């Protein structure tokens, strides 16, 4: 904190820093490599905007299926989860640095800690700011990455606010239209 400014009380709880989560999507082999293991992907579909991903969450206590759009130009991974119980939110947006290699067959997602939780048509909020600050203090991300993450998150929140918290409305204003209608295998 800068001299003369009080520490924010109760706003950013002490967070144990963790290294950046880096995921890899191998579209050739239909494999999603995460920090917790390698999982089979049901569908990878390249789109004009990026990559669509759909896969089940095996043995997860809350989530049964995941769909996502990796959007490199926006610096976001837009996620839609199907929960075992009541829907917790409509969309979860990860601020990330997304790259491709091997002629677009391998996608790498470097999660930049900040996320947005969207209740479509109702509200949106930026979360995990404490994780970003802790990661910066630990040297896991650069000052440039912190600035980039904050700019992406605030640009997204401003756009969602202008679109009355409609993800489709904000994406349309950005010139994008995404398909979320994927049926899970029985």
TrEMBL record:
Source taxon at top rank: Bacteria
Residue numbers spanned by region Disordered: 1-23
InterPro entries hit by this protein: DUF402, FomD-like_sf
Pfam family, one: DUF402
UniProt domain DUF402: residue ranges: 36-163
Designated name of the protein: DUF402 domain-containing protein
């Amino acid at each position: 904190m800068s001299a003369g400014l009080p520490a924010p009380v109760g706003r950013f709880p002490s967070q144990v820093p963790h290294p950046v989560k880096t995921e890899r999507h191998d579209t050739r082999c239909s494999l999603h490599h995460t920090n917790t293991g390698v999982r089979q992907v049901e569908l990878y579909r390249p789109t004009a905007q990026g990559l669509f991903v759909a896969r089940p969450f095996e043995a997860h206590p809350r989530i049964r299926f995941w769909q996502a759009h990796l959007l490199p130009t926006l610096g976001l991974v837009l996620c839609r989860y199907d929960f075992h119980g009541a829907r917790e939110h409509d969309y979860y947006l990860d601020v990330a640095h997304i790259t491709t290699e091997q002629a677009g067959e391998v996608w790498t997602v470097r999660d930049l800690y900040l996320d947005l939780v969207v209740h479509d048509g109702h509200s949106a909020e930026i979360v995990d700011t404490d994780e970003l600050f802790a990661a910066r203090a630990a040297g896991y991300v650069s000052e440039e990455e912190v600035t980039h993450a904050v700019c992406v998150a605030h640009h997204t929140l401003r756009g969602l606010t202008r679109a009355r918290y409609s993800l489709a409305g904000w994406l349309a204003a950005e010139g994008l239209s995404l398909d979320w209608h994927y049926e899970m295998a029985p």
